[in-house]
Amino acid sequence: MNLTNRSVAVDRSPMTFSEKIYIPGILKGLKITLSHIFKKPATVRYPEETRPFSPVFRGLHVLNRDEEGREKCTACGLCALACPAEAITMEAAERLPGEEHLYREEKYAAKYEINMLRCIFCGNCEEACPKDAIYLSETIMPANYRRDYFVYKKEDMLITDEQVKAKRLKLQKA
Amino acid sequence: MNIDTFLLVEKTVLILIIILASMGVAAYATWAERKVAAIMQDRVGPSRAGPFGLLQPLADGGKLFFKEEIVPNNSTKWLFMLAPALFIFTSLLTSAIIPWGPDFTIQTADGARSVGLQVADINIGILYFFGVVSVGLYGIMLGGWASNNKFSLLSSIRAASQAISYELALGLSLIALVMLTGTMSLREITAQQHGFWADGYFTWNVFKQPLGFVIFLTCTFAELNRAPFDMAESESELNTGFLLEYSSMKMGMFLFAEYINMFISSAILATLFFGGYNFPWMDQVAQAVPSGLFSLICVVVLMAKIVGFILFFMFIRWTLPRFRFDQVTKLGWLGLIPLALVNMLVTGAVVLFILK
After folding, report:
1. Which of B163, B184, B206, B264 would be a feasible disulfide site paired with B273, CB 3.0-4.6 Å?
2. Using one digit for the tens of pLDDT, what is the confidence trace for B146-194?
């Protein structure tokens, strides 16, 4: 039965004279390989140039802040619940008086960890978050020799003031 | 300074230059091989070490020197050490008989003196070449045997039987050439191919012995243990064969010697069949420039031919798949040897009845 129309019957007939002396075959092969001299290499020289990402690429996580630089996350745990790989761990804490400039709501994540070795970058956490606090950025997960490096703490993911300012500048320009 | 010390100095300098040049060419052949492979596979190849990856051979050599040296416990130790040394030694020996360029004259205190660009003009140059090439095989055989590893042993057996079957055809194809030229001295053979066109026909031997050239070229591939005849190495079946137990610079020597072999064999090919250092309109050039410069031009021409052959070897390697072992011996015994015999017969008849 033919599954596709691309199947070719194997030719097991004895070699003809021109096949036996190999030279026509060699010339044919050389023609093919030599034609590759004029082709452009397919290489992307990685650190200097990168391949264009798809607009929906999902990379490393970013914990977002609001316009006043306060953490958006309220440690509700929906992301951890949505995570199919169970990569997210968090501990909630109550906001104390005087910390209003740090956290937007009364409850915040004292500890927020993502194990990047477990994470499958599906983006379910991003979708589950009711506060738009977690995003998947376009940064590729870097490699490392140490296992504990891959457990990302809140400080590793939280967007920095500089990043916020840069983003604001970009928005103003646009 | 008497004339003999001058000869000694002259030859020593020449030997040093040739050995260093062989090493340099071999080092850059590894780079070129990787570049050629890359280009044929639409890749970039070595590009990080220096511009266009030109420092890559240095980096490779440095890496090999710093690697751990492992000598297997059950190996025959001194043979294991001897094999790479023998291999690289014999690969360098062949360069002695190649005429790199025509003689040139220099002025000394004793008057004008002609300096030859050939280490040894022996009248049995071709026989010497055969002898040294056969001894070179011992490097592979001893290496494979001394490793005390079944894959290595298989590989050395393959190398030996392949060399036997192809050296016959190699010799037979050259006998036809020797009959035609009437000499075994490479200097003579090169001199006979002077220029490019004489007496209504090409002077280069490739036009007089096209079949002999094809046979010789094929056998050279087999002698060099290069694809499509890299039976001894065959990394997919024998796991690199005789190289399997070698590490560090011992392996590096083997690989390096193979590239030196390729360089020397290209030189032999160019000398025997492609006119050596001769090129079209060389007489006019010789009249126009001083003799030292003319010799230099000739050396450059020979080098260009050698580089062309090396590139051809590489193109073939990255084009053809490896032959099966039975196909290799079959091609050697049933294809090339009868063909070389016929070629010899026809050449003999032509020399005897037509050329007289």
Report:
1. B206
2. 888 888 888 888 888 888 888 888 888 888 888 888 888 888 888 888 8
Q: What would the 3-class secondary structure string for chain B be?
A: CCHHHHHHHHHHHHHHHHHHHHHHHHHHHHHHHHHHHHHHCCCCCCCCCCHHHCCHHHHHHHHHHHCCCCCCCCCCHHHHHHHHHHHHHHHHHHHHHCCCCCCEEEEECCEEEEECCCCCCCCCHHHHHHHHHHHHHHHHHHHHHHCCCHHHHHHHHHHHHHHHHHHHHHHHHHHHHHHHHCCCCHHHHHHHCCCCEECCEECCHHHHCHHHHHHHHHHHHHHCCCCCCCCCCCCCCCCCHHHCCCCHHHHHHHHHHHHHHHHHHHHHHHHHHCCCCCCCCHHHHHHHCCHHHHHHHHHHHHHHHHHHHHHHHHHHHCCCCCCCHHHHHHHHHHHHHHHHHHHHHHHHHHHHHHHC
pLDDT on residue A81: 92
Distance from CA of A142 to the nearest CA of B (A): 21
- Whether B172 is in a domain gets the answer yes
Look up the domain containing B140 and give its range: 70-355
Question: How large is the average pLDDT for residues A44-60?
Answer: 84
Q: What is the ipTM of this complex?
A: 0.71
Q: Does residue B223 sit within a domain?
A: yes
Number of domains in chain B: 1
pTM over 0.90? The answer is no
Q: Give the nearest partner residue to A30 out of B319, B331, B335, using CB atoms.
A: B319
Look at residue B44 and tell me if it is in a domain. no
Domains of chain A: 61-173 (3.30.70.3270)
Please answer yes or no on whether B315 and A42 come within 8 Å at the CB atom.
Answer: no
Which positions of chain B have pLDDT values less than 70? Answer: 1-3, 108-111, 356
- The residue of chain A nearest to residue B48, with distances taken between CA atoms, is A45
pLDDT in tens, B195-216: 777 777 777 888 888 888 888 9
Of A33, A39, A41, the CB nearest to B44: A41
Q: Choose, out of B34, B35, B36, B40, the residue to mutate when testing the contact with A (most A CBs < 10 Å).
A: B40
Residue from A20, A23, A30 to probe the interface with B (highest B Cβ count within 10 Å)? A30
